[in-house]
Amino acid sequence: MIDQARPIVLLLARIAIGVIFIVHGYQKFATMGIAGTTKFFESVGIPLAGVAAPAVATLEVVGGLALIAGAALPIVGSLLALNMLGAIVFVHGANGFGAGEGGYEFVLALAAASLAIGFSGGGAFALDRVLGRRGGAATVTA
């Protein structure tokens, strides 16, 4: 039963986490705008804010799409997790744990989910699997 559900569960997880990243990246482009995102990044001390703002927005949109498609999962999952680590360090960490107070709880969950999905192999419905790139799901024999 678990083996039968695994591909569907991984697909649903990829869709859910991917959509969250796409929406947040889209907000940086459309709602805040890159200029507004750059100003915010500068205000919280992110180095090279003018480069970081469009890079982060692009990573979140493209990375979210890649998660949904199941493409380049180990790379994308790692990059998105590093992105969330940056959000913890520069924005959420000083606010404590609780998301309600602007803390790092939600961002940490996104980082963990990105890594878990990135190194899960993506499941049967992942583009990596269809193309024969197993990406992350490794079997170790002793």
TrEMBL record:
Superkingdom, taxonomy of origin: Bacteria
Transmembrane intervals: 7-26, 46-68, 75-94, 106-127
Record carries keyword Transmembrane: yes
Family listed: Belongs to the DoxX family.
Principal place of residence: membrane
Name under which the protein is recorded: DoxX family protein
Compartments where located: Cell membrane
One Gene Ontology term, aspect cellular component: plasma membrane
